[in-house]
Amino acid sequence: MANNVLDPSALVGLLLNILPPTNKTLTSPHDGLAALVHTAFSALSFRLIATDDTSSAKEHPNNVLPDDWNTKGLVDRTFRYRHDQSGLEFVVKVIKLGQRTLISAIAVESDKSASLDVATNDFVSPSFYPYDAAKSDTPPLVHGFISSNRITDFISQLKLKIIQKLIPGLRKEGYIEETEDSSSNAGPAPRAEIPPPAPPRPDSPPYPDDPYFLPPGLRPRNPLEIGRQDLDPFGGINPFQPPSLFPGNGGDGMFVGPGHPIFGMRGNRGQEMRGPWGGDGYLPPMGAPPGARFDPIGPNPGPFNPSFNGRPRRGPPGSGNVRDPDNDEFMPPGAGDMFM
């Protein structure tokens, strides 16, 4: 298998060879990153034809940079290229934006563009610059970058975001295109987002497993069975009579008393069983809005008007139903002296 032409050590060695003989100085971290971009394009056989937007195309032998490539007083570094596998001209700009570097590229004749934005100090060491390769006592250029792994990360993003957009399917021995999954992140790993807390769940009915919201062991009464005792005076002792699907309705004849089943279902000790929305449990869901002033269905006392020693506790009008009629309404005007 051929060696990787974009290996970090190979790129650093090539970078020293493309600096001009009379100007081997990298003045800033921005110059270090721009020179690395040009080195990667050179390793993939892009031919340098100019380092500005106005000069006529002129190929530079071995892609060596001109003497004034970083001394024109401009912050941006411009590289114009051609490639044997394309008839287009490519313009690559390395632009300094504060502490970030924007790499923007375009295929001039087709308006095919690409860009990459990175944090400069994620890849280069600011304290290393300025760097003059002509001096014999200077440290190795590799120390101008954070590490070999960070060079690899940067080149992976350059391939994915720039080179593969300009020339898809570029053929070069030792070159393999990147994929979104295999490419490294150009910057530090983003912080994991903390999921927002789940909204509070509404209170469930007291007995969610029972469609009638009744306590375990208590079956609902069939309202159509009320009065059956008047039709069955023998109390259901007929052996040929099929059993009822509902519990017996004792005391449900024509004589209506306080214990008659029409006044609500009762559980142990005669305690009335109410549904979760008030009334007798037969209201539809949310039949009584929360907080509404709502008289429970039936004459039995509500939770705020309990009985006392088996007798209803009376209250002012509107305080809830009692066993007697509920006089919620005031008498009509003048009704008090209608017999006078």
Automatic annotation (TrEMBL):
Domain PI31 proteasome regulator N-terminal: 23-173
Bias-annotated ranges (Pro residues): 193-218
Gene Ontology MF terms in the entry: endopeptidase inhibitor activity; proteasome binding
A Pfam family matched in the record: PI31_Prot_N
Locations listed in the record: Cytoplasm; Endoplasmic reticulum
Entry keyword annotation includes Nucleus: no
Predominant location category: cytoplasm
PI31 proteasome regulator C-terminal domain span: 226-299
One GO-annotated biological process of the protein: proteasome-mediated ubiquitin-dependent protein catabolic process
Membrane-crossing residue ranges in chain numbering: none
One term under GO cellular component: endoplasmic reticulum
Region annotation Disordered: where it falls in the sequence: 177-232, 279-340
Stated role: Plays an important role in control of proteasome function. Inhibits the hydrolysis of protein and peptide substrates by the 20S proteasome. Also inhibits the activation of the proteasome by the proteasome regulatory proteins PA700 and PA28.
Family: Belongs to the proteasome inhibitor PI31 family.
Name the UniProt record assigns to this protein: PI31 proteasome regulator N-terminal-domain-containing protein
Protein species of origin: Suillus discolor
Lineage: Eukaryota, Fungi, Dikarya, Basidiomycota, Agaricomycotina
